[in-house]
């Protein structure tokens, strides 16, 4: 197996990939290929250059990752696994102290989570976005400019020869990002006691007005909903897809019945994948 991921080395996405595959013996270790963006990693999996892509889906503070949502909404990809990774951020630079930092580089999701810290500790500093947290660390190390620092996961400092100036920058100490492993085909992951199924409902012309009816089809069959997210189709204002994560496996009767009931309302329901639900204990 070759996995595409948002690189370079030292991103939270790489941590997610390692957590997904903790039990593989070192001599059978799958190849990991870094890509410069989430979209590029997804395209590599779509083209068959890599077998799957591990990409961020949602952060508990900043919300969804648009590139991943767009690709899932196009329904060419399936989800085969999920993993949650706690995210905590460090400020790192080649030299100097926190007070000397004038430009802070990082991924927009990371900058967003560290906004409060930046406003209070570095009110005069400018921010520059990078394709990932590790890309920011690498850029800062390569440029070697005084006053430039990156926000990234602490291990990125060691990888790129930077010094940690401060830790715990995130607004929420318990911040978590959910990552998914996606591929053009659903791989029928081994069943476990706790399954999750991801579905994409296209709401059609009636739009959001139909949402309560859709949700009710699952509720009346005793199926719990764990995630709901609307995503624009791009066609017009008010035209949405609905992402739903529900408890249970696609091969169970209540879930089949609920999907058929939604379809009977004239709506398209696309199956994105059934896979073991992540539990922190397993990680
Ligand atoms: O830049 C990284 O290290 C990533 O893995 C991306 C990403 C994201 O897309 O949200 C992942 C987790 C953190 O919330 C910050 C950045």
Automatic annotation (TrEMBL):
<protein>
    <recommendedName>
        <fullName>prephenate dehydratase</fullName>
        <ecNumber>4.2.1.51</ecNumber>
    </recommendedName>
</protein>
<keyword id="KW-0584">Phenylalanine biosynthesis</keyword>
<keyword id="KW-0057">Aromatic amino acid biosynthesis</keyword>
<feature type="domain" description="Prephenate dehydratase">
    <location>
        <begin position="2"/>
        <end position="184"/>
    </location>
</feature>
<dbReference type="Pfam" id="PF00800">
    <property type="entry name" value="PDT"/>
</dbReference>
<comment type="pathway">
    <text>Amino-acid biosynthesis; L-phenylalanine biosynthesis; phenylpyruvate from prephenate: step 1/1.</text>
</comment>
<dbReference type="InterPro" id="IPR008242">
    <property type="entry name" value="Chor_mutase/pphenate_deHydtase"/>
</dbReference>
<keyword id="KW-0456">Lyase</keyword>
<dbReference type="InterPro" id="IPR001086">
    <property type="entry name" value="Preph_deHydtase"/>
</dbReference>
<keyword id="KW-0028">Amino-acid biosynthesis</keyword>
<dbReference type="GO" id="GO:0004664">
    <property type="term" value="F:prephenate dehydratase activity"/>
</dbReference>
<dbReference type="InterPro" id="IPR045865">
    <property type="entry name" value="ACT-like_dom_sf"/>
</dbReference>
